[in-house]
Write a structure and sequence with these properties.
The complex is a heterodimer of chains A (113) and B (109). By secondary structure, chain A is mainly β. Chain A contains no helices and eleven strands. The radius of gyration of chain A is 13 Å and the shape is globular. The N and C termini of chain A lie far apart (36 Å). Chain B is mainly β and 109 residues long. Chain B is built from no helices and eleven strands. In chain B, a hairpin with a 6-residue loop joins strand 9 and strand 10. The chains are: A mainly beta (113), B mainly beta (109). Chains A and B meet through strand 5, strand 9 and strand 10 of A and strand 5 and strand 9 of B.
């Protein structure tokens, strides 16, 4: 089954404790992206990757890092989480053809205390 | 001014009613996406269209590129259609999506 998986689905952590949210897709997609969703603000792009070893900042990259060492994986790293990073996070992937459908992961609800 | 605007923000309907959700955008686009976010949070892609009209079951999406406007219609609405509907447009010639803030639809029996 074609899918995007994220782990963990739920996470409660404390300020400053480094964490990683994993994202994996099995569709051989070139394009992968991370979004955060906050009430009243909608989905905003954090980082994206056009292909292996190619990443770029989205609209709200501060406080986040990503890597793309393999085509299928695109982890999101919070080196020193802060309460303003409490949010719902989505990973998505697409073939990379302009305007192609994006497939979304199930979401990770993160709470930083 | 947001580059992608949706209306209405909230919508309630009785089962069986015809629903219309609107999306206007100000950027040049190659295609427009309609997404559905279920109450549990998951997001699924409903349509991607660059011209005309697409239909899938009770859902119909239309787009007018000249007027920079798209509509999502739901015929014979059902309580299981209750969700947030989001339109998104890619910046022209890129994969970067800009999202509307969504329309929350509740359909009552």
């Amino acid at each position: 089954e074609a899918q995007v998986t994220q782990n963990p689905r739920y996470l409660i952590t404390v300020t400053g404790k480094k964490l990683t949210v994993t994202c994996s897709q099995n569709m051989n997609h070139e394009y992968m992206s991370w979004y955060r969703q906050d009430p009243g603000l909608g989905l905003r792009q954090i980082y994206y990757s056009m292909n292996v070893e190619v990443t770029d900042k989205g609209d709200v990259p501060e406080g986040y890092k990503v890597s793309r060492k393999e085509k299928r994986n695109f982890p999101l790293i919070l080196e020193s989480p802060s309460p303003n990073q409490t949010s719902l996070y989505f990973c998505a992937s697409s073939s990379g053809q302009r305007g192609d459908e994006q497939f979304f992961g199930p979401g990770t609800r993160l709470t930083v205390l | 001014k947001n580059e992608v605007e949706q209306s209405p923000q909230n919508l309630t309907a009785q089962e069986g009613e015809f629903i219309t959700i609107n999306c206007s955008y100000s950027v040049g686009i190659s295609a427009l996406h309609w997404l559905q976010q279920h109450p549990g949070g998951g997001i699924v892609s409903l349509f991607m269209l660059s011209s005309g009209k697409k239909k899938h079951g009770r859902l119909i999406a239309t787009i007018n590129i000249q007027e920079k406007h798209s509509s999502l219609h739901i015929t014979a609405s059902h309580p299981r259609d209750s969700a947030v509907y989001i339109c998104a447009v890619p910046i022209y010639n890129t994969d970067k999506l800009i999202f509307g803030t969504g329309t929350r639809l509740q359909v009552f029996p």
